[in-house]
Design brief:
The protein is of the alpha/beta class. Helix content is 35%, strand content 18%. The chain is built from 25 helices and 26 strands. Strands 13, 14, 15, 16, 18, 19, 20 and 21 form an eight-stranded antiparallel sheet that branches. The protein has a seven-stranded mixed sheet with strand order 3-4-5-9-8-6-7. A five-stranded mixed sheet has the order 22-23-24-25-26. A hairpin with a 5-residue loop joins strand 3 and strand 4. Helix 11 packs parallel to helix 13, helix 18 packs across helix 19 and helix 22 crosses helix 23. The chain is globular, with a radius of gyration of 29 Å.
Length: 729
């Protein structure tokens, strides 16, 4: 039925033929003489969706990094990171060449006058190359032929004027990091609130909130040029044309089509009249039929289903609470309450002096309207209500085992706020800024009780007899230091939550002990189980995200104490790492000092009988010295690098690490290491002085680059090397 629908749509849609266009003429002109460009940080992608827009530079998955468009008589070029025009990037490889080509292509004059907003370096750089350039304020745009930057600062009236100027033949080159803006503005939407996207959307381009991946070390190759499938306007045509025989679509084509169309569906503004009318015709009656699950996931090959799922989510998020219906996939995650469960009204106290999420022991079923009542004094205190405990958005994943975005937050700006979600979830009050209100009483109406245990507050009898059997599908166990969020099925038979939370308090205390930090926390460390994560097997953050299959271990004190859990303790360690003593290549190394320490002190699993004592680690260590030491290899192998730290621990004990970490806490801002060389040097010097041994030769034999000055600073100390080091064959 799906294929017939698409074939029919192909007949009724009067689709333009992109094949008849000289689609590569402009990209070829722009990339003339360009082999590769730099990659400042992690560039975001640009959603291209207009018939007169095109990609210029792409990554391996067809995500556009640089894009251009013709708009009436004007031209525009966008770059997906605001760091492209800084000194380090523009003077690297052929980035400057692409910029010069961009000025020629947009300006269309032998010597166009260029105006740059807020980038004095770029003005000097271009003038040195013979390009007539000056710094301008955004309101002086009409005095130049090519405007670089400044659109974000333009008022609505100025945007209107610039748009008119552009239509008459003006030219704009601009840059932004879409995902970065979204992270800094979590309460706003990139498609509707970001000034740049409001301005550029009529041209068929917007900054998206995804990431791109380098196609060469620290950069992007200019070839191959982006295909028409990187433009959502034409990608939709291609999807319809090839739907009758998907066997003819390669995996790479599927990947590009899926990325292009899913990104556009999420990023193109609601009122768009270029791409969205076509999308609505293609999706037809397939909306509200998508139910991704671990058993029947939506994959990249299910492009139409991915688009429908994306559109379902987009539509539900713009509806008023009274109009929102339950999505059928909510039963997969976060789950739904048993049939017949009655919603309740409850008043809860929230301490507004503590920043972050505040658990309430309440769950909103999918589609259920929730009423949140604030006391008058709390209105305007930047409080929010959140629905959903996961922080994982799955838009960039090739497989969806659940709906890709299920959480939402609403600002509490009125005495009463009505909210609803198609997916539901645990309800939280979010304190964004600490206030002097202290504890306030908030009333929630329409929610379902969820199993919630708080150490020191919930009685064991109440837990065993009533609380653990409460109907909501998600449960939380809390202390002042830790909160665990798991499926309720994992706590139905939990008899001793007190021991469990005391164990987790101990894990956090041990981590603070090693890091030489206070054991008193400003807010709890959260752990949340999800059926699918956005990154890694587990990943750090607050909450630390774990796969649901590991939730049973998260709430098993016997497992945590007697066996230990490398993954849980590893991610906890990430929350205590200090960048001052974590140089390049050791992000996944120094974290495991905490893993090993917790296993040692909580589980009595000594480092030498744990992973570091395994034969494969010893073989790896010996092979490194036998084959010739290479710092790049050391940095790329976390357990090889960890062996070096293990040798220090075995000789000098944990006290040495604590004393070294304590030294870092004493550093002023100006004394902190400013680059990797300084980080390596300071680590060696601090450790040497704490243990009163010269560790310079030890670092050198391992292949760790340290400066001569750092070696000289500890040369008065006796040299230390482990017995039998370096290892012989």
């Amino acid at each position: 039925m799906l294929i017939l629908d698409l074939v029919f749509l192909l007949l009724i849609l009067n689709l333009p033929s992109y094949a008849d266009m000289d689609k590569n003429a402009d990209p070829k002109m722009l990339t003339a003489g360009v082999n590769q460009i730099s990659s400042p940080g992690i560039p975001g992608n640009i959603s291209v969706f207009g018939p007169n827009a095109f990609g210029v530079i792409q990554d391996k998955k067809g995500r556009v990094v640089v894009a251009g468009a013709k708009y009436y008589n004007g031209r525009v070029l966008l770059w997906g990171h605001d760091g492209f025009f800084n000194k380090e990037s523009i003077e690297s490889v052929d980035t400057g060449c692409l910029l010069i080509n961009s000025i020629k292509w947009t300006g269309r004059k032998p010597k166009p006058k260029v105006g740059v907003v807020d980038n004095s370096y770029l003005v000097s750089y271009l003038n040195n190359l013979g390009v007539q350039t000056r710094s301008i304020e955004i309101d002086n745009f009409a005095a130049v032929d090519v405007l670089i930057g400044g659109i974000e600062k333009a008022s609505k009236n100025q945007q209107t004027q610039i748009n008119h100027w552009l239509k008459q033949g003006g030219a704009i080159i601009d840059s932004a990091t879409g995902w970065g803006w979204q992270q800094l503005n979590p309460d706003q939407q990139l498609s509707t609130d970001f000034t740049g996207n409001i301005f550029y959307a009529p041209m068929g381009m917007v900054f998206a909130d995804g990431f791109t991946s380098d196609t060469i070390q620290d950069g992007f190759l200019a070839q191959p040029l982006p295909s028409s499938s990187t433009n959502a306007y034409f990608a939709l045509d291609s999807l319809v044309q090839k739907a009758s025989d998907q066997s003819k679509i390669t995996d790479q084509e599927i990947l590009i089509l899926s990325n292009t169309l899913t990104t556009a569906t999420n990023c193109v503004p609601i009122d768009d009249q270029i791409f969205r009318p076509k999308l609505e015709k293609v999706l037809g009656n397939h909306i509200n039929q998508q139910n991704p699950s671990p058993d029947e996931p939506i994959t990249e090959r299910n492009i139409l289903q991915r688009l429908a799922m994306s559109e379902e989510i987009r539509q539900s998020r713009r509806l008023a609470a009274k109009d929102i219906k339950a999505h059928s996939s909510a039963k997969i995650f976060p789950g739904i309450s048993p049939a017949g469960t009655q919603p309740i009204k409850r008043s809860v106290k929230v301490d507004t002096s503590i920043v972050g999420w505040h658990s309430l022991g309440l769950f909103a079923d999918a589609g259920q309207m929730i009423h949140v009542h604030l006391p008058p004094t709390a209105v305007g205190k930047k409080l929010k209500v959140r629905m959903g405990s996961t922080t994982c958005r799955l838009w960039n994943k090739s497989v969806w085992n659940r709906a890709p975005e299920i959480t939402n937050e609403w600002p509490l700006t009125q005495p009463e706020t009505k909210i609803a979600s198609s997916f539901g979830g645990l309800i939280y009050i979010v304190v964004t800024e600490a206030t002097h209100e202290g504890s306030i009483t908030i009333t929630i109406n329409g929610a379902v009780e969820s199993p919630y245990y708080k150490l020191g507050q919930t009685s064991l009898q109440d837990w065993v007899q009533r609380v653990r059997y409460l109907p909501a599908p998600r449960a939380e166990l809390a202390s002042d230091k830790v909160i665990l969020t798991v499926p309720s099925t994992e706590v139905r038979e939990l008899d001793n939550p007190e021991l469990l939370m005391q164990t987790w308090d101990r894990v956090l205390d041990l981590s603070a002990d090693l890091a030489v930090l206070s054991k008193t926390r400003d807010y709890p460390q959260r752990y949340c189980a999800d059926v699918q994560l956005c990154a890694g097997w587990m990943h750090a953050g607050n909450p630390i995200m774990i796969p649901s299959v590991t939730a049973k271990n998260l709430v098993d004190s016997n497992h945590l104490i007697n066996e230990g859990n490398w993954g849980f303790y590893h991610e906890t360690g990430h929350m205590f790492q200090n960048p001052d003593w974590t140089f390049e290549g050791t992000g996944e190394v120094t974290v495991n000092l905490f893993t090993i320490y917790i296993l040692d002190k909580l589980c009595n699993i000594k480092p030498e009988v744990g992973r570091m004592g395994q034969p494969n680690i010893e073989r790896k260590y010996r092979a490194y010295f036998k084959e010739g030491i290479q710092f790049e290899q050391w940095k790329s192998d976390p357990f090889l690098a960890l062996y070096m730290y293990y040798q220090l621990q075995q000789e000098f004990g944990w006290a040495a690490f604590k004393n070294v970490f304590a030294q870092y806490h004493k550093l002023s801002r100006h004394q902190r290491p400013k680059n990797d060389q300084e980080k390596r040097d300071k680590w060696m010097v601090f450790f040497s002085k704490v243990v009163k041994q010269n560790l310079g030769p030890f670092f050198q034999l391992w292949g760790i680059p340290i400066s001569e000055s750092s070696q000289e600073s500890v040369s008065n100390l006796p040299i230390w090397l482990p017995i039998g080091f370096p290892p012989k064959e």
